[in-house]
Design brief:
33% helix; 9-stranded mixed beta sheet; 10 helices; UDP-N-acetylmuramoyl-L-alanine:D-glutamate ligase
């Protein structure tokens, strides 16, 4: 059977604070789910009806067993999820303090998903895969960086659309400039790059500034960024750039064209997972043959619905929910 989407990169056990609005030190309990940006995208795509699979790894521990069962229950293919002996499954703890504070702490001391190998990648049936989603984070450390490059190179040999979600996690990189230096050589194998302005600046700027470990870019020179993206597209290094702008929607850039697709006004409850829902929605509709405006509108709706719900993977919308949401929004306008 062909696969609509394979995602490449980390997987976590996510623990979400049950005490909504409480300071993290005051949290009394957590709800367990499975996450990690690329694996979230596989789950979100599955909710939309795509045949999705994850290329990742878990430890040979009870948490790994939980993750595998969770993915199966979510309809995600696990044939390419390796179990790495002697490692542990990644963990993430999330505080929930609406509307804009969601403190996130990772426990990723030598996690299983950094131990994927080229041999693991060679077993992935890229010839029968319509789209692949590479997480930029997958290239940060361990043998998984080589495995991700193998996936990208192999996908380029087939009629497979390759997406990269930049997924910048500064704590995963040993040097502030390593993100761009590592990912730029991979871009010729990529068709579509998805990210925020800050992530694109870290990717493309020769000196992106203080992207220190544990910190984020605090200032983007937008004029420089526009020039860098223009060069990226003019040289056909990639075909399409999609800039996520949160509630403002998204910008799609191809060589010589720029399209603004507005978002949907909603009251956010939990922004964690919104970007993953967006990416899944975009791939879902592009796989179906939609143009960029139609695909981004559906993707914006996915993200908008996601931020109105608590949790992450448990909150991803279905295709029927998206249709109803857009119809309702259009009636109110």
């Amino acid at each position: 059977m062909s696969i609509d989407l394979i995602t490449v990169g980390r997987v976590n056990l996510d623990l979400f604070a049950q005490d909504i609005g409480a300071e993290f030190a005051d949290v009394t309990g957590f709800d367990a789910a499975v996450g990690g940006s690329p694996t979230n995208i596989a789950m979100a795509a599955g909710r939309l009806g795509l045949r999705s699979a994850a290329f990742t790894a878990v430890g040979d521990d009870t948490v790994g067993e939980l993750v595998l069962r969770y993915l199966r229950d979510m309809g995600v293919g696990i044939d390419y999820v390796s179990v790495k002996t002697g490692t542990h499954t990644s963990l993430a703890l999330v505080g929930v303090q609406p509307p804009d504070r969601f403190p996130l702490t990772f426990y990723r001391e030598d996690p299983a998903d950094t131990h994927l190998t080229i041999d693991d990648a060679a077993a992935v049936p890229m010839a029968d895969t319509k789209a692949v989603l590479l997480s930029g984070d997958a290239f940060s450390r361990g043998t998984t960086a080589d495995a991700a490059r193998k996936i990208a190179q192999t996908a380029a040999q087939y009629d497979t659309t390759t997406y990269m979600d930049l997924d910048l996690r500064p704590s995963e990189w040993l040097h502030p400039h390593a993100f761009g230096l590592t990912l730029r050589p991979v871009l010729p194998w990529v068709d579509v790059v998805i990210g925020t302005e800050e992530e694109f600046y870290a990717l493309l700027a020769p000196d992106p500034g203080p992207v220190a470990v544990g910190a984020r870019i605090t200032s983007v020179d937008r004029e420089v960024l526009e020039q860098l993206v223009e060069v990226l597209l003019d040289t056909r290094t990639v075909e399409t750039v999609v800039v996520k702008r949160g509630s403002a929607g998204a910008t799609v850039l191809n060589a010589g064209t720029r399209t603004e697709v507005p978002g949907f006004p909603v009251d956010p409850v939990n922004t964690v997972g919104a970007g993953d829902a967006f990416a899944a929605g975009l791939i879902w509709r592009r796989n179906a043959g939609d143009d960029w405006i139609q695909a981004c509108r559906q993707a914006n709706a996915c993200g908008a619905i996601e931020v109105t719900r608590h949790g992450c993977s448990v909150a991803f919308p279905t295709a029927d929910e998206i249709a109803a949401f857009i119809e309702s929004t259009e009636r109110e306008q």
